[in-house]
Amino acid sequence: MKTLKRNQTHRQVLFLQKLLQKIGYTLPITGFFDELTDRFVRDFQQKQPLGVDGIVGTKTWKHLLTKHYDFSLNIKNYILTNNEWFPDYIEKDTIYLHHTAGLHRPDYTIDWWEKDSPPGKVYRVGTSFVIGRKALNGDSKWDSVTYRAFNEIYWCHHLGTKFSNNKQLNQKSIGIEICCLGPLVLEDNEFYYKGNHRTIKVPANNVCTLESPWRGHLYFQKYTDAQIEECKRLILTLAFIFDIPLANISYNRKWFDLHQDAKDGKPGVWAHCNVRADKTDCFPQPELISMLNSLYEDAKTFLPSQNSLESFKSNFVKKNDLNNPEIEHYTEDLNFTEYNGYYSK
């Protein structure tokens, strides 16, 4: 989060002023840290108590967010039970993109995280957001529908690296899962997903064929246009709220390789494949690359919609019956078996 003080003009001042409004202070949202904003920040600091200096730094942001962060982001809340994630506030500076290695429903993905732990253990593995997709039969009910699994100011394991800084990488990042089967195989002119627990036939109109194999695979279930657009909206919204930097670089196929900067914790937008050689999420689909290349310029003028900054407290979805057999192994990206218990800590 950016440190803010009087006489600054910055997009994050807009967010600060919205937070102050949510608390009950009456002030216009202008993006300029004026005398009134300064007065209300000092009043808030005095009531915590915090050092009263009018500067919104790490401690003031922590108090503001842990007590008053309540924004719908125009998504549905499908929250994991409290022991499935860590209720520790860690400042966020990174977004990680994943795909689920599963089918189209975001709720079933979260349901599987809810029930994937073996008896007597809890594996806190998941991402804050899951973006649904069009079903294999063409039903678009879930396409781009996004569910929140836990509040994004908190954290959960979603990277599973063996790096010494693995915990910190997970703590300071927000994960976005895109529902997608991932790599496919072509057999007898038909495409199939072959996971650890099932084989699924995939229609040809769902397939992205790369120009050459990437990490051993030529065919993938493609991310839908609606998913990519929703992913972009989420990235821009989260970057706006948390002041996450969006790099002015040229995204291309090479960007999907392993990156030392990602391993070192450089802030920004990364994908699971940037820190795991054994992962294929996300893969270099041309439409995804185009979206990533649009982020830097579009962020300059992006403002979250008014609806996305409304309270999420009334936007909860009724939970499913976890005994539904369709939920079993619905996603394989964050499979608890690869975490070996260490990542539950």
UniProtKB/TrEMBL annotation:
Listed under GO biological process in this entry are: peptidoglycan catabolic process
- Report the coiled-coil segments: none
Q: Pinpoint the Peptidoglycan binding-like domain residues.
A: 11-64
**Per its UniProt record, what InterPro entries does this chain match?**
Amidase/PGRP_sf, Amidase_domain, Peptidoglycan-bd-like, PGBD-like_sf, PGBDSf
- Residues in domain N-acetylmuramoyl-L-alanine amidase? 93-273
Gene Ontology MF, one? N-acetylmuramoyl-L-alanine amidase activity
Annotated protein name in UniProt: N-acetylmuramoyl-L-alanine amidase
